[in-house]
Amino acid sequence: MTDTKIKKKGKSLPPKLIIGLGKFVWTTLWHIMMSRLAPRNQSGEYIRPDSQFRNVVSSAEGNIYQPAAGRYKLYVGLGCPWAHRTLVVRALKGLEDVISVTTVEPSAESGGWVFTSEDEGCQTLAELYQLAQPGYTGRSTVPVLWDKQTKTIVNNESAEIIVILNSEFNEFATNPILNLYPTELKEKIDWWNQKIYTSVNNGVYRCGFAQTQEAYNKVCDELFATLDEIDTALNTSRYLCGNNVTLADVRLFTTLFRFDIVYYGLFKCNRHRIQDYPNLGAYLRDLYQLPSVAGTCDLESVKQDYYGNLFPLNPGGIVPSGPDMAFMLKPHQRETIGVR
């Protein structure tokens, strides 16, 4: 067959048909992959499954999991905002020598977290979950608070783990006076936590994982309405609940740190950058510059985890080179806000 005939044959399939076929195949595969990655409701909105290990560390009589130095370990992924919360509280409280940390890495091939070297006889986090509870069929997520003594998972809900770290290891902590969840502020902290979780922490995922335009529009409006509300509140208050950092700030911080880096573009949360808000940008820098907090922030892991491993959202796997994080060290000038 001559080159001329080959070229003519190659042109015989109309471009419109090729595009339509490609779009059909990709859209079908995308919905299949997204259904595994992000369960949805009938309107196409992402629904996050609940965590299933909900025990606590406490000195209460009869509790299996008693506070002790060296007994517990955190399994975290450095790119994960939920796991990042636990690292921030561990650092602020000074628990680095009390609770060890093992990092896991996401595997795009296996679709789960894997160990860089064998841990507890396991190669993957899913195997660790099976070790803790044989026959477990739920998601194998980070963070995990692990009990080395009983070889089991104490808790895998980040919101509860950070409460445990704040209050149950004070006798071993180097900063025991710091209380991120004081009794007199619990009601206000809980109010912010609920609002922020629904609209911001999980809101960015509800935007990124939305599978219909209607679902995306709804949650995007909710996300930015809440960010506007937070920005207004921070005009007269250094932190969410006054002049001192609380768990509400910790829970918001790990999402804000990732916002301009990945959520703004990859998750389609691109109405505004955090650094462009009158107060949120400086507030983010304020939290980042607290003692030991910057050391918990791993920009490259964040980019690799999202851009490199969320194949349905970034099929090419290309990881952007920026941004330059030097701006995070600029003066935030929030020291006197709210101070009478």
Given as residue ranges, the uncertain stretches (5+ residues, pLDDT < 50) are: none
Strand order of the largest sheet: 4-3-2-1-5-6
Average pLDDT confidence is 90
Task: Count every beta strand, where a strand is a DSSP E run of 2 or more residues.
Answer: 6
Termini Cα gap = 87 Å
- From the helix content, strand content and strand pairing, which structural class follows? alpha+beta
Largest sheet: 6 strands, mixed
Q: Write down the Rg.
A: 23 Å
Helix content: 40-55%
Number of helices: 11
Shape: globular
| Beta-strand proportion | 5-15%
Description of the molecule:
This protein is α+β, with helices and mostly antiparallel strands. It is built from eleven helices and six strands. The chain has helices spanning 3-10, 15-37, 81-93, 125-132, 158-167, 186-201, 203-208, 213-233, 247-263, 280-288, 299-309; strands at residues 72-76, 100-107, 112-119, 122-124, 144-147, 152-155. Strands 4-3-2-1-5-6 form a six-stranded mixed beta sheet, sandwiched between helices. Helix 3 runs parallel beside helix 5 (158-167), helix 6 (186-201) runs antiparallel to helix 8 (213-233) and helix 6 (186-201) packs parallel to helix 9 (247-263). The radius of gyration is 23 Å and the shape is globular. The mean pLDDT is 90.
